[in-house]
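Journal club prep, notes for RB
We'll compare a predicted complex against what the paper describes. Inputs for the NAP case:
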Amino acid sequence: MKEKSVLSGLKISVIGAGHMGQAMVRGLVIKSVYPQNITVFDVDAKKLNALKKETHIRLAKSNRQCVSLSDIVILAVKPQILREVIEEIASSLDPNCLVISIAAGMPIARIEQFFKKPVSVIRVMPNMPALVLAGMSAFSLGKHANQRHRKIAEAVLSAFGEMEQVPEKMLDLVTAVSGSGPAYFFLLAEKLIEAAYESGMKVDVAKRLVYQTAFGSGKVMLESREDPEVLIERVASKGGTTEAALKVYQKQGFGKSVHDAVKAAFKRSREISQGK
Ligand SMILES: NC(=O)c1ccc[n+]([C@@H]2O[C@H](COP(=O)([O-])OP(=O)(O)OC[C@H]3O[C@@H](n4cnc5c(N)ncnc54)[C@H](OP(=O)(O)O)[C@@H]3O)[C@@H](O)[C@H]2O)c1
C-alpha cells in the first residue's frame, strides 16, 4: 500500500537513471511511494523522459536541483563519477538528508569525505534481480546514520527485493556472493542449455526447461528454507539419474570451482574497495 510506510511524505531523489536507478524508481512507485515524491536526474535525457512516461516521476534539470529539498538521495551512478557528483550536490543537500549509495566498492568513509561535512550515509550492495523487483541487497550504516535512517533504508530496499544489514567490512564478501551471484546461476543455466543442445534438444525448448527449472528451484529454496543438502536428497534417489550426474560434479571438482570462484571475486572486490 502506497505511502503507509516510514517513507510517507518523504521526498526522494535518484541520481542516475541507468539499470539500477530505474529498477529502484520502478519498485518505489509500484510498492510504496507516490511518483510526485520522486525526482530523478541523469545526464541522458532520453532515459529520463522514458522513465517519466512510464512512472510519472518528476524530472530535475541538474543534479543540484534534483537533491534540493530532498529527504533521501539515492546515488545510482557508476563509482568512477561518484566523487564528481557528490562535489556537485554537496552544497545543495539539506543537513538532515539521508544519502543512500549503491556504488560498488566505494567505502562509506570515502563517500563521507567527498561531502566535506557530516552527512548520514548508508551504503548498499544490491544485485541485478532488483530489475524484476527480486533483488537481494546488503547494507551498512555510516557513522552519522541512525536507527531512523536504517528503517528508511529498509523501506527503500524492500521496494525491489530483500535486504540484510551487515558490518561494512562484510560488503566485499557480499559482492562476491549475492552481487556477482546472479552470473553464477546464469552460467549454470548456459551450460545446461548447451549440454541439452549437444544431446539433441532444440535451444528454445532447452531454454524453457532450464529457466523454469531455475525459477522452480529458487522458489523451493525460498519457501522451504531447507538446507540445499536436504533438497538435493529429495531429487537424487539411490542409483538414479541425479545421483549419476552429482557423482560427475563431485569427481570433477564442482564444489572446489565454486569456492575458488567466490574467493577470486572476494579478492577482486577488496582490491576495488582499496582503489586498486
Ligand atoms: N548493475 C548491477 O548489477 C549493479 C549491482 C550492484 C551495484 N551496482 C552499482 O549501481 C550503480 C549504477 O549501476 P548501473 O548498472 O545502473 O549503471 P548505469 O546503467 O551505467 O547507470 C548509471 C547512469 O548514470 C548516468 N550518469 C553518468 N554521469 C552522470 C552524472 N554526472 N549525473 C547523473 N547521471 C549520470 C549514466 O548515463 P550515461 O550512461 O549516459 O553515462 C547512466 O544512465 C553503480 O555504482 C554500480 O556499481 C550495479
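Talking point for the session: The beta strands are 12-15, 38-41, 58-59, 72-75, 98-101, 120-125, 135-141, 161-165.
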